[in-house]
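PROTEIN DESIGN WORKSHEET
SECTION A - STRUCTURE
LENGTH: 532
TOKENS:
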């Protein structure tokens, strides 16, 4: 051990001498490559190999000299626990999760991903994958594993003739929608702009226009990924088509590191925005009417895309600030006429005395998608923690059952808790269950609940409240045993069937073919056939 550290110190001294020589010699790009590695590296300064970092690497059986060489050849930035940005870099979108990776590699290119996968395989280091870190169960980072982060792999290319796009794995929906808007083209996507396209699409991907154009994964026509051997493979309808099938709803992080996605696009520019608020007492009847007329009862693609919310708002009454629950719908109409938008929701707006706002003028889809949810539940503080659960409504419910859904929400311990409804039908349900890995093709709604807390004292109550919404004796009869795989929760029972249903065994066979040693794994990842 003393000899190894002596070699490291001697090597560092030599590096300092070489850098001094470079400063006094005429510049030459090859000399720069030889002396300090990749000249395009985003952090031009090499890692500082202080003794604690050397010992830390050795504790994980990582040779510091090989690690330094690995870092030097990358364009990527490596963040270790001794880097000043480590605590920020290891964070996920949900403050509820606090994981400590061995180190984090912010890949800039596919070559960075190849090099990192190879290095981890050669050094027997476990791998976690992250694009934007919005996994609702915290699976986007793991303790004691190398975190391969592809959020810096950007780039969006649009072919307006073929009406297709190609995007890097680190692109967000906000960036992607903005790029498409110049071409008046569209892809069904997420209603939250910071969410990445990759994890979202690979897990299905529901958006306002899904009942018109399908789930996001239905429009995925190609994927490029790096497999466990560090090889670049492409999946299309004609090449590795089974892998493309699996990527259409089989979730990310199972078969390799996705670095690029290709989509088919649709013409869409301007939309009419729809905002409706009801008194909470009308919510059950609205939900039942919605179920019966505007969900899977709609057989053809529809230009109406709406989401529903049980939420709370603060209302000032004299000197008192009251928390008032209400029911809201937010959405858009993609047709040409405002009158048609008004008529499309008339069955719902005829109930009670709602506040209805349908803009007098159309707005760009990207703008509508960005702002429709701005005033549903207010601004949530950045230090909040969250847990999420969901379930599909497959069997029709009656008004009394929807009233149970509403009444339970009224017991919410937090102003910020929210129950959301995503309707299915139209283009979504036109696809057969086995045509893609996304199996959920006969639902009325996907209902998901977000429960928030700030302190450890509030945590248990927040988690119990959302769990009881789905599993308590009074509520369990409302739900099927299927869950939307983009809203994972570690406590789901039989998640294999819940997420993937009859498609799970085929996903296992594809897993065995493309990742036979289960290099890419996480809690609730696709299991090898012998593991179940």
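SECTION B - SEQUENCE
RESIDUE ASSIGNMENT:
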């Amino acid at each position: 051990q003393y000899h190894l550290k002596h070699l490291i110190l001697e090597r560092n001294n030599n590096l300092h001498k070489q850098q001094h020589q470079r400063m006094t010699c005429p510049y030459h790009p090859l000399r720069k490559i030889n002396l300090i590695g990749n000249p395009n590296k985003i952090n031009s300064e090499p890692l500082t190999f202080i003794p604690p970092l050397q010992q830390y690497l050795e504790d994980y059986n990582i040779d510091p000299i090989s690690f330094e060489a690995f870092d030097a050849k990358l364009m990527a930035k490596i963040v270790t626990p001794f880097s000043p940005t480590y605590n920020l870099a290891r964070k996920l979108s949900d403050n509820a999760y606090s994981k400590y990776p061995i180190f984090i590699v912010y890949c800039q290119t596919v070559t960075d991903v190849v090099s990192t996968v190879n290095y981890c395989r050669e050094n027997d280091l476990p791998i976690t994958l992250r694009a934007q870190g919005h996994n609702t169960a915290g699976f986007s980072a793991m303790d004691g594993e190398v975190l391969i982060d592809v959020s810096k792999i950007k780039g969006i290319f649009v072919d307006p003739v073929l009406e297709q796009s190609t995007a890097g794995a680190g692109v967000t929906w906000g960036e992607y929608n903005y790029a498409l808007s110049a071409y008046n083209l569209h892809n069904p996507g997420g209603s939250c702009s910071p969410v990445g396209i990759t994890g979202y699409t690979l897990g299905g991907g529901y958006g306002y226009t899904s009942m018109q154009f399908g789930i996001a994964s239905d429009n995925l026509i190609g994927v490029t990924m790096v497999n466990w051997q560090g090889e670049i493979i492409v999946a299309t309808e004609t090449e590795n088509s089974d892998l493309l099938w699996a990527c259409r709803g089989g979730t990310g992080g199972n078969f390799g590191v996705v670095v690029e996605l290709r989509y088919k696009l649709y013409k869409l520019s301007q939309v009419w925005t729809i905002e409706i608020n009801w008194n909470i007492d009308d919510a059950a009847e609205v939900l039942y009417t919605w179920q019966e007329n505007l969900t899977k009862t709609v057989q053809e693609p529809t230009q109406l895309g709406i989401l529903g919310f049980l939420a709370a708002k603060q209302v000032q009454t004299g000197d008192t600030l009251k928390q008032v629950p209400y029911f809201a719908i937010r959405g858009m109409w993609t047709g040409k006429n405002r009158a048609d938008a008004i008529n499309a929701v008339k069955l719902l707006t005829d109930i009670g005395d709602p506040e209805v706002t349908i803009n007098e003028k159309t707005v760009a889809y990207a703008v509508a998608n960005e702002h429709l949810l701005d005033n549903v539940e207010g601004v949530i503080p950045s230090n909040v923690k969250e847990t999420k659960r969901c379930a599909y409504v497959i069997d029709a419910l009656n008004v009394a059952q929807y009233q149970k859904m509403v009444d339970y929400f009224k017991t919410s311990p937090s102003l910020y808790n929210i129950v959301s409804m995503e309707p299915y039908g139209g283009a979504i349900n036109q696809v057969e269950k086995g045509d893609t890995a996304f199996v959920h093709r006969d639902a009325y709604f996907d209902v998901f609940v977000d429960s928030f807390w700030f302190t450890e004292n509030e945590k248990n109550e927040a988690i119990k409240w959302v769990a009881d919404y789905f599993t308590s004796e009074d509520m369990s009869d409302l739900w099927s045993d299927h869950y939307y795989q983009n809203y994972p929760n570690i406590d789901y029972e039989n998640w294999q069937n819940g997420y993937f249903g009859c498609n799970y065994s085929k996903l296992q066979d594809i897993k065995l073919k493309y990742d036979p040693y289960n290099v890419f794994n996480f809690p609730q990842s696709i299991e090898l056939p012998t593991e179940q």
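SECTION C - NOTES
The first helix runs from residue 2 to 24.
Residues 1-12, 14-36 have pLDDT under 50 and may be disordered.
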